[in-house]
Each structure stands twice: as structure tokens, then as C-alpha cells.
Design goal:
2 copies of one chain form a homodimer. With 436 residues, chain A is α/β, with parallel strands linked by helices. In chain A, 36% of the residues lie in helices and 24% in strands. In chain A, the strands form 2 sheets. In chain A, strands 7, 8, 9, 10, 11, 12, 13, 14, 15, 16 and 17 form an 11-stranded mixed sheet that branches. Chain A has 3 domains: 169 residues, NAD(P)-binding Rossmann-like Domain (Rossmann fold), CATH 3.40.50.720; 153 residues, 2-Layer Sandwich (Dihydrodipicolinate Reductase, domain 2), CATH 3.30.360; 84 residues, ACT domain (Alpha-Beta Plaits, 2-Layer Sandwich), CATH 3.30.70.260. Chains A and B meet through helix 1, helix 2, helix 6, strand 12 and helix 12 of A and helix 1, helix 2, helix 6, strand 12 and helix 12 of B. Strand 12 of chain A pairs antiparallel with strand 12 of chain B, so a sheet runs across the interface.
Chain lengths: 436, 436
Amino acid sequence: MKQINIGIVGMGTVGTGIAKIMVQNKDIISARIGAELVLKKAADLDIERDRGIDFGPDLLTTDPFLVTDDPDIAIVAEMVGGTGIAKEVIERAIENGKHVVTANKALLAEHGNALFEKAENKGVALAYEASVGGCMPIIKTIRETLVSNRIEAVTGILNGTCNYILTRITNEGITFAEALKDAQSKGFAEADPTLDVGGFDTAHKLAIISALAYGMKINLDEIYIEGISNITPMDIEFAKDCGYRIKLLAIGKFDGNAVEARIHPTMVPFSNQLANVSGSMNAVSLTADGVGNMVLSGRGAGMMPTATAVLSDVADIARNILAGGGIRVPLRSYQAANIREVPIRPIDDIKTHYYFRFTVFDRPGVLSKIAGILGNHGISIKSVHQTERKLDGGVPLFMLTHRANEADVQSSLKEISALEVSTQNPVLIRIEEDES
Amino acid sequence: MKQINIGIVGMGTVGTGIAKIMVQNKDIISARIGAELVLKKAADLDIERDRGIDFGPDLLTTDPFLVTDDPDIAIVAEMVGGTGIAKEVIERAIENGKHVVTANKALLAEHGNALFEKAENKGVALAYEASVGGCMPIIKTIRETLVSNRIEAVTGILNGTCNYILTRITNEGITFAEALKDAQSKGFAEADPTLDVGGFDTAHKLAIISALAYGMKINLDEIYIEGISNITPMDIEFAKDCGYRIKLLAIGKFDGNAVEARIHPTMVPFSNQLANVSGSMNAVSLTADGVGNMVLSGRGAGMMPTATAVLSDVADIARNILAGGGIRVPLRSYQAANIREVPIRPIDDIKTHYYFRFTVFDRPGVLSKIAGILGNHGISIKSVHQTERKLDGGVPLFMLTHRANEADVQSSLKEISALEVSTQNPVLIRIEEDES
């Protein structure tokens, strides 16, 4: 039976997962691919740790370039992560004419344009299914299933840590701080959780998939990013009473001229499948002409789901090699010559539905003043709810709006703050209504 | 720009949809594939009807074999459906060395083994993404994403007509007959609805995907099939009170020795994503080692979703042709030499949870007798509920069981019927509990 030699740089959780699957499921992998995938060399700073696998002598090395430079290796899996040595490893492997598989969303979001061009020029694959949504075939679906469709929207829950925290707050009414602490103790959140709860990891993923979906260069800098740390049980509870759940959504939309690309806590109606994705699960909804919504959901992170995605890319490349052809599917979905710069619409220019929570003094005329300012900015109120509950010396005033423009909303909130009728800053959460 | 010539046999709804997309989205298809897809010839019995497309002269023909035999055509899309001429068209195209794309689940479920072998021997593709789940990439996900995983279960809502009818009964409390009539008037159900509501269409699809998932020959005959025509609003209401929705599920499970393959109305807990898939939408849940559950959902039928799936197959084949390689992905997921005969477990041997509804005379001792019979067969009752509501001279008695064996359940129900304490036959609905 033919062999395809693989090298792995970075034998942490995912790298070890890949090696484990290659051993445990060797039989079915060979029966499906028609060749044996062989781990030829693997690099890690720590080659002494027991990984529960018998690698045999000389397979592990501390030098990543012994992997990238090994003439017998056809496919290099970069599993280091981050934007440091990982970039060098990928570049060197490409220069050596090797196909590369990576799960490194941060690197691709920041340096993807140059890396993809490098791989395209060299005629090798740079595959990255594992960078977004774990084992869910989101990249394959955009590149290979929706080939004949104009994609209009990509909307997703792409960070398991945030979804876990929001689910805990939703189910138990605990605060963000409590839910975060719990997530950290269970290993669902890092000691420094900023990358996750600040929305940055989600932004890396949105940068990658919106570029793919719309045939544009990756543009991380223009993405609007707002994290989940200000979400309170009170907002979640009110949302629930109105038929919504609060999720950290990545929203990428294209109207043919400009792209909306934004990450923020979002109220999602129960009828939307994303509302029902809970715990550390991920999900992506794709909207395209002719097909409406298609939703993929599954485990977005973790050893085995990520290793599965890496191995699906490895299998794709192995099958190309065995079939004797070149690169079949353009790395960025569109042929390199068709990749454009598409402007990202500033957040001020978007139009959506809004939820506001004001905390106001309980006295006559306050509601009328607030409603007046919103009306002056053309913001139409859909529903208002004021409770008797005392909060920080005031009472909460909840509002849902019809479709409005973000800049108008921001101006209104500024004017309302200046009224000095509030005991707290207003809370704003955008709503993603079903469009049908 | 290079051209790939396509032929279509059967210019009904889906065939016309394919032609429409090829015209409307020509720009993006070319930008993604790097070649132009050209409709060279299309056959249909009716070539006079206005399809809203300008085909130019001589493109339409009434002779399907002018398509299959055209030396300029590389890919033939069989869109006739059924098991008659469609089979001949596919066989002839394969014999002529053409790649074939089909959406014909009935044909593949009945004659797929022979057709796949024919295509494998000839070295051409026989692609069928459109045969299951419309635009959802269920076949691609099994063949190309879960390459390194042992698939353990495939569970799906695969018939939009049934899901639409069950959703109407659930939401409005109408009867099956009323919901069916409504579905027929809205075009969601055929005049003769047997293929759909009897579960047969779902069985065709399960036959195809369980073969794919488990590397086995297609085996339609052994699939247990039960339709939805006996489902009543009362059962749906009780299910809801207990936290379940009733769905027509296709269930295909593999324990390494034998496959369970069954189609029947199923109580699905709200926490299961499939419970939240409503109306004519389809969804499939895939369970595999390491990745847990992954769910795909979307439009499972209709002109554009099906045409999209056909064109994703066409694009895959076109990319193979352009890259200059042979067939990359085995048609049946496993290499032909690895496809086995795997026994399908008889329905009597399955173990699952059950819902029973008895309609019994309202007199002392009845519950004890029924519970006694169940106990004698080792069936453990999880909950019992009896209402005062009169029904057909009796009162309904609802029961949920722990995991039990089907044969024991059937023997018990027979004994209970023989007691002559019931005014109606007992109702049995299987339950698919979350396994985690």
C-alpha cells in the first residue's frame, strides 16, 4: 500500500490528537484513502513528556526545521499556534514545496493574505479547516458546496468559551464574573481570558470565513469587535421574556458592494437555530441565494474535533497527491486572480434592531424625554417595559426598536446620557431578527 | 478560459434550476472553478414549455441519448428521477466514460451497488450529494470530513413533507388528515403521499447514507419502515408535556458488528437539535468517535437547494478534470475493495426507550395488570400518567419506559391487547434519548 508521509510541528493537545487518531483509526483511514498516512517526524520543545503513544526512536525532535526540511515529508501540520515561530514554519514548509495544514486562526487573520499568495505561487496547499469551528466543515462547505451560490450572510457562534459563559449566565442567573471563574476552573477559559471573552478569537475566525465567502482579502483591522464582559443576568432575563437568547455572534454580510463584519453580543430569536446552540458548542449559519439558511453545528474546539479537521485536510491533500493532479480547490475559494479588496462598512453605517436598557430616576417626564430623543433621530420604538425593581438608585427601562441606523442610535444614547436622568450608562445590545 | 461541457437529462424543476443558476451565477462559478461550465445539451419529453431561459437553437432535445452520447459532454446530470429510463441514462453515460451526477435516491437505494461498481470499473464519478438532504453537504461531510473517524450514528429528519405535517400537528393540534390536506394544497405533499408519509423516501436516503458511513453495501430491504399516519395530536401533546417533540427520524447506528437501520416516528428531547428543526427543513446529526455530535440543517428539497447540490458535485468533478487527476474520493467513501456486507439488526433485537398510550376501561386493577405484564417481560416503567379525559369509551393511560428490548415490548403489547381491558389498540412511539 502506498504511503504518504506527514510531519507535525507542535505536539501539544492537537498535535498529539492527530498522532493518536492516526494510530487508533489507521485501518479506516487507509480503507478510505487507499494509502497509509505515516507520521514521519514531529517537533516539540518538550520531547520527553509521555503522550501515551509509542513514537519509536528518532521520530520526535526539538527542531521544527527538521520537519519542514525533511525531503520524505509531503504534508506538514503546523500545530504551534500564535504568530511567532508558526509563521516561519509555514513559510519554510511552503518554500520547500510541502503542503501545509494549520489550525492557526490568529496567524491567518493577521498574515493570511501573504501566506496564501506564497502557497499559491508555489502551487502547494495551505489548508485551514481546523482554524474555524473545529470539526464542522465550514470552510469545505463555503469552498465546495456553495460553489454556485452568491453567499449573502455568514453568522456564527465561533467561540466555545463565550458560549459556555453565556449559557451559564442564562441557565443559572449568575454574573459574568462568576461564570468566567467557573469556566476557568473547568478548563473552558484561559487564565487570561481576553482573547476569548473580548471577542478577538471570534474576529480572527470571521476575518477568515468572510474573506472566503465573499472572495475578498482578509481584513481583520476593520472588523467591529465587542466582547461579552458587560452582559448581565438582567439583560438575559429580559431577552428571554421577549423570546430571545443572547449569544456572541460573528456577523459577516455582503450586499454586493460592501461587507458588514462585526462581533458583538446579539439577541437571537428562539426560532433561529443559533439560539438553541448551548454550552461550548459552535454553530455557523450560511445564507445564500436559492438555498436560504443552512446551519452547521458541532464541537468547535478541543483535541479530537480539531485533530479531526486537520486530518480531513490531510486526507484531501493525500487524495490529490494519489490522484496525480495539482491543487483542485483554490485556497481562498476564488481563483487567486479574482480575490478583491472589498470595503468593510463602518459600524456607524449598519442598520439593525436594538435593545436598550436605561436605568433612570423614577419620576415623571423621563420616558417622554428619552422617547423624544429617539424619535428625533428617526428611531422607532417597538416596545417599552419599565419595572418597579430598584437598581442602583434608579429603575430599569427596557426598549426594543425597529430597524435603525447605528450612528443615529449612538447619537441618541449620547444625548440621553447628557439628560442626567440616568443612574447608569445605557446598555445597548443589537438584535439579529429572522429575515424572512 | 477553459470550458467544461455539461448535459442534463430531465428538464423538470431541478434540471431547470441547474440551467438557471449556470446562467445567473456564471461569473462567480467561473471565478471559483477557473473554467466556464457550459450547458451543451439538455433532454426532456417536453421541449416546448417556456422555462424562462433562452437556450438558443438545438440545445434542447427529446432524445436522452443525444446527451449521454455527445462526445463533447464531460458530465451528465440525470434529473429524470425514478427507476425507469433514469437507470438506462446513467448506465449509458458511464459506458461512454462520462461522469454522472444524480439526485435519484430511489434508484440508488435500489440499484446503487451495481451502478457504483459500474462507475468504479470505468473510472468515472457517480456523484449524488443531491440525493440526500438537498443542499446540505451530508455526503461530502461523511466522505471528506469524517475521514479519520469511526462513525457511530447517523440520525436525520430527511423528508420535508413529513416534517411539515408533524410541525403543523404540533403547532395547531390538527389531525394528520387535516395537516396532509393542507400540505397537499400548499404543494408540500404529492397527490399520492405514500412515498413520503409512509417513510419510504426517508428509507431510500438512510440506505444511501448508512452505506456510506459504515463502508457497507446498500441494503434497502432490511430497513425497518414505519410512517407518520398514525400520529395524533394527543400523542404530540403528551410528548411536549414530557419535553419531547415527535419527528420522523431515520436512525442508522453501527456498533462494529451490525447496523441498526430504522425509520419511525420518534420522540426527541428538546435538548436535541433535531427537535428544533421545524417546517419543511431537514437536518442530519452525525456522531463519531472524538467529535461527538455534529448537526447539519437546511432545505432538504426544492428547485434551488437541489440544483445547488447538483452543481457542487459538478464543480467537484470539473475541478478534478481541470487539475488533471483521476477520481480522488471513492464514490462510496471507502475504497471499492473495502466495501463489506454488514448485517442489519432485525427490529426485534433493538433496545431503546418507549412511549405507550393505552386506552383502557376506567376500572380498578387495569393498571396493575398492564404493569404486571410489562414487568414480566423485564420492561421497567419510568413514568405513568392517566387522565380523566374520555376517549372512545375508555381513558388514556400514558407510559414512558426505561431502555427495553423491542421483542419484549411487542410480546407485552400483544398480551396486554389480549387482556380485553382496552377500547383501542395500544400506541407505541420509540424515544431517542440523548446519549451523554
